[in-house]
Amino acid sequence: MSTSRETMLCEFPEDVAAAAAALIHEAQAQAIKARGVFRIALSGGNTPRLLFDRLAREWLDNMKWEKWEVYWTDERSVPSTDEHSNYKLAKDHLLSHVAVKNSFRIPAEANDLHAVVVAYSSTLKKQFASDNPVFDVILLGIGSDGHVASLFPGSPLLESGSLLAVAESDSHAQKRVTFTLRTINKARLILFLVAGERKADAVREVLVNGNYALPAARIDSPYGRVVWIIDKAAASKIT
C-alpha cells in the first residue's frame, strides 16, 4: 500500500464540508490550468449534501463552473427523481444552483444495468480520450460496514478490472452501478468525507488497524492524494 493517505480532523460535519470545498477549489484551479477542464465524481450521503450546499452558497462566484464535468461514483437502481438517487441529491443541492453545463448521470433506473455499465464506461473513455480515465477529484464516504461507493465487504467486485460494475449486496436491497477500485484509485485527489459517531469503528479499522477486508482500506492511490476529512465524532476512536 502507498503512503499517500492524509488525515484532516475537524470539529463538526459543517467543518468537514468547508475543508472539502477549499480542497476542491484548489484542485479545480490546478486542473483547469493544466488541462482546461475539471472532472469530478460525486457521491451521495449527508456529508456530501452539506458540501453541495456550501459550494452552491459560499463558493458560487469562486468556481469556474463552466469548466466542470460532473460524474457519479455510483447510483442506486432508482429513477432520477427518487429520494434515494445520488443524482437527485446533487441536482437539488448543487447543480440546479450553478452553471455546470456538462454532467453525466448514471441512468441506473434502466432494466439492463450491465448495458448501463457498458454505456457509461464508453462515455468515460470518450470524455477522457483514454481507456484509463483519471479524475481530478473523486468524493467518497464510508459506510459503517467499511463500504465505499457501492463496493461492499467481501464483494467479488473488489478484484474487478473493469471501470464500472453492477453491485449487489445481501444487506442492500437495491442493485447499483458503481465505480471499481481501478477507477477510483487512479484519481489525482480522493476525498473521504466522514462525519458522525456511527462511522467511528470503520474509521478506526481503516486508519489505525489497516483492515484490508474493508473496501475503504483499499483506497490508497499510488497516483495522487487520498485525504480523509473527519469530524470529531467519527474520529473518536482513533485518538
So, CATH architecture of the domain at 13-174? 3-Layer(aba) Sandwich
What's the shape? Answer: globular
> Taking strands numbered 1, 2, ... along the chain, how are they ordered across the largest sheet?
1-10-9-6-2-3-5
Proportion of residues in β-strands = 15-25%
**How far is the N terminus from the C terminus?**
22 Å
Topology, number of strands = 10
Q: What is the helix fraction of residues, given as a range?
A: 25-40%
Provide the gyration radius in Å. 16 Å
Could you state the oligomeric state of the chains shown?
A: single chain
Quick overview:
The mean pLDDT is 95.
Task: Set down the secondary structure blueprint.
Elements: E1 5-10, H1 13-35, E2 38-42, H2 46-58, E3 68-72, E4 74-76, H3 86-95, E5 102-103, H4 113-128, E6 137-140, E7 164-169, E8 172-179, H5 181-184, E9 189-194, H6 200-207, E10 225-231
Parallel strand pairs: 1-10, 2-3, 2-6, 3-5, 6-9, 9-10
Antiparallel strand pairs: 4-8, 7-8
Plain-language structure description:
The protein is α/β, with parallel strands linked by helices. The chain has a domain at 13-174: Rossmann fold (3-Layer(aba) Sandwich). It is 31% helix and 22% strand. It has helices at residues 13-35, 46-58, 86-95, 113-128, 181-184, 200-207; strands spanning 5-10, 38-42, 68-72, 74-76, 102-103, 137-140, 164-169, 172-179, 189-194, 225-231. It has a 7-stranded parallel sheet. A 3-stranded antiparallel sheet has the order 4-8-7. Helix 1 packs across helix 2 (46-58) and helix 2 runs parallel beside helix 3. The radius of gyration is 16 Å and the shape is globular.
